[in-house]
Amino acid sequence: MIPKGLLFFPVTPFQTDQSLNLPALKQHLEIGLNYEPGGLFVGCGAGEFHALSENEILAVIKIAVETNKGRVPLYIGAGGQIQVAKNISAKAQDLGADGLLVFPPYMATPSDEGLLRYFDELSCASSLQLIAYNRLGTVLTAELIRGLLNIKTVIGIKDGFGDFNKISEMIEIVSDWEISNPNDRKITFMNGTPTAEICAVGFRELGITTYSSAVLSFAPIISSLFYKSLIKQNDVVVRSLLDNFYIPLARIRDEIAGGAISIMKAGCRINGFDYGGVRAPYLDLSEEQTMRLTTVIKKGTEIATSLKEM
Length: 310
Hints:
The chain has a single domain, classed as Alpha-Beta Barrel (TIM Barrel). Helix content is 48%, strand content 11%. It is built from eleven helices and eight strands. It has an eight-stranded parallel beta sheet with strand order 7-6-5-4-3-2-1-8, covered by helices on one side.
């Protein structure tokens, strides 16, 4: 199953003692899935992959499989230590996941050849589909992309930088490969920049309309309307939501390290769903930041409500 369209990256709810809150996770997933996303990605960046133990990731996968019931493609975050990533890959397949979003091997600065080896070993651990993530730690050079295309389970590239010249180069490499291999798989490109909606029009111009939406986790009405307007090229609505919601949101996000996750947790609380705070090494928003975020969400919701019929 290939994820396409508006992608749901849920947070991982915690109790006050920082333990997993699995009933809250189930509730959170149900709410997001009701908006019919094109894919579900659990235990990834938004889900604090960096702060979850292997057993916690497996518990999250079990709840996701039970809740999703095959409705949309289900992908799991995997990365870090290669043996742990391989264990998660094998167990995720046994539990019923569809694929992995591959994160960097932490505390290492590998060469292209080393990263290719990492993906190759991960592909041998299970038959799950793999999405390569172009971000710090796993920068996808032209040579690395050509190597990844030889790994049969690699089906997607998620870009976290938003450098359109580099993305155009990646698209050209993949297009040439697809022409030379007409009977092989197709590679899906995804916009994975922080607050991806801000770059969405630029990605659309390159033919990429699949993206991860952090806002879907706490303000799905806004997220859903933005996506539908983007696809319909209703740029009056797109511009209004960017100017009045997404750009002010991103300003608050950038005030704190790890703000992309902190804002999601705070946004859930503001809208009546307390899924706990973020784990170390990140911090929650301050009271003053939360008040400003409340104002931004209120404004965005009002606009979404008034414009949804346009």
